[in-house]
Amino acid sequence: MRVISCVAITLLAASAFAQTSPSLIGVVSDPGGAAIAHATITAHTVGNTITRRATRGRFSLDLPAGTYEIDADAPGFATLQRTGVVVTSESVDLPLVLNISGVSEQVVVEAEASNSLAAQQAPLDARLDARSARTEVNERYINNYLSPVADYSETTQMAPGTFSVNSNGIGLGDSKSYFRGFSDGNYDITFDGIPFEDTNSPTHHSWSFFPSQWLGGVDFDRSPGTASTVGPTPFGGSINLLSKPLPERMNIAGGVSYGSFNTLLVDGLFTTGKFGPGHKMRLLIDVHHLSSDGFQTYNYQERNAGSLKYEYRISDTRILTGFAGVIHLNTNTPNFKGPLRSQVSSIGYNYLLNNDPTSAAYYKYNWYVLPTDFEYVGYKSDIGHSWYIDTKGYTYSYNNHQNYTNTQTGTISASGCAANSSGVYPCGTDKLNSYRKYGEITTISEVSKYGIFRAGMWYEWAATDRYQIPQNPLNGTDSVLPNFHERFWTNSYQPFAEYEYHPTTKLTVSGGFKYAHYNQDLTQYADNGKTIGSVDPVTKVPFTARYSSAGYNSYLPSGDANYRIRENWSVYGQVGTGSVIPPSSVFDQAGTVTTLPKPSFALTLQTGTVIKLRRITFDFDYYHVHFGNSYTAIADPNIQSGTQFFSSGDSVTQGIEGETNIALAHGLNLYVNGTYGVAKYVSRTVNGATNINYQRWVANTPANTEAFGLTYSRKGMDFGIFDKRVGPMWNDNGTFNQVVPIDPFSATNLFLNYTAPGDSRLAGTKVRFGINNLFDVRNIVSVSPATKGANFTPNAGDSLGLTPGRSFSITVNLGVAPRS
Description:
mainly beta; 820 residues; 22-stranded antiparallel barrel; Maltoporin, Chain A
């Protein structure tokens, strides 16, 4: 993000004060003092941007007198920002030291030698040094053009080819994101470089971990990344969530937001600025409370959360960082996929639950409590002789305790269960999905005149406890035996090594290798026959628990290159590989599993270009991804809310993506992106049998998407209107793919804000007004069909996913900061 906060700006008339020598000179170097010959230095002030390349590490800029923000970028290094740099008639010597980069710790808007206004003002943008298709979402976009209650999925909603929907309203439910044919679980999500995911299969409960109040940007890489991109499933891409940057100025801010569905958000923020001995420490604390009735009937939500981020800059080359976040979530969200078609038709578009104690859809029978926590400690240091270390140790936990009824149409009698017209007994279920993880990511880097060598390791250990027990919803009494109960332990590690070679100032070539190993040890307890039973099917001997173990290994090379045709024009190419292990449910069967399924793998090829002119930016890419040994997830007929996974054969997804931002005039910008893609199964046979899904579309893969945004930002005012259209796609029916057609759908959002100047006593004060789904468009976005045949006919028993109705919100944040 490039937000210019200057203490004072003084521009002298050039005719009276013409400079005859460079006014800003210096050397840009790595933490060990070696000059960086590939760096780009950019100076910003109001209405003026000047950029130069560093030659053999040295740079010089002719600048009018004034106060500037200076940015320094170089391949393989994190962007450095210096604010409040005062230039007078005398030359100013400004040494700049860049740190080795991994996953970006802060999204910085890039404006290269073209002095690109369009890049500075773009809500989403690509980088000239990118070696894969990626979109960077800056903090300005999150703070000005999203609902204050948005979750992480909304931050990437406008990115090329990406979509997500939350039927209960923005930020009021567990939404999932889709892009390039990748469903949730087929891509990594990280927070400050730390990957996280559920343990039984790599899906994400991000909504319950990282609210938008904690986010300072998103680095969205739609590729497997390089060898140093670690995590369980990076082959689909990585949505890298970034914590808020620590400001250098003290600020106290409190805010209240109120909107549709009786949604209330109360938030408090405190930043210390620099403090302590030598002013080497900084601290940020955020606490908030959210409550909402939700768009859907009786789908109540309540969230209490707090986070803390701390930095101790021991020296310029040694930095200690810590983060802790805790959330407690209560909700009445049920376990079924959505309202039935018949319920929407007869009761209303927003129907989900009711207030009838005799109904299985009574909201007090459907609820869950979900506490989470996430903590890490990071340390970066120069260890001498051009070697550096970057390490993070972390832990996080998820404890989802849920109670729900097993159908949404039956009745509840005094005994707790009663047959409905279909003969189904709508009893309840007591469910737990709980895990605790410990892990570490360490990277050691060496910088030389030829490039950067990186090597390291990701390690993680996880303990999981999961069960589902039949329950009387009236009194909460559990049955003696569960549908299933399992505890398992997972060890994961990924050592890697890569080299980023800089043969010329214009060319960067990288190659690397990663070894991925996973081991699972499971204890599955005897159950009522829904999963493994209580008697061995071969020996006929009763048992109380069964023990299983599985190990999976993958060898994953990668390579990429970026060539700078001009200062403002680059091209790139990438070859990447990835894998994901089968879910733990492969052991959910009576008897011992004798043959383990193989991990899924993916081979990604992509190429693209990025151009940044004064008033227009443009990036375009082509991608081709081959999935091998893919799995299709369908509902388990024996376990309510359970999932079975079946091999669906190989698939190929390929397409093109493009985006542009045009600086029209005086803070007015037009942002547009579009995609076209195809994703189909290509295996003629699966496990020796004819593949019934050969040449059928992969579910939730739109044939095309389009997005546009019109933004205006000037003198503290921000206006934005954004529209996202998702083209036609298909849903599966549990056996056959490309069965249920989903028509195109779209949503338009509008935002208007005013922010007090950053150098005033009211810094942080803001008034926000927003409308989501401006035109109240109501569409079906997903269907779980009641019938399972090869053909689909709309049925009253279909479960529907729907776009939420129009919603309004108004937010007032009051900030108080001491004078500089």
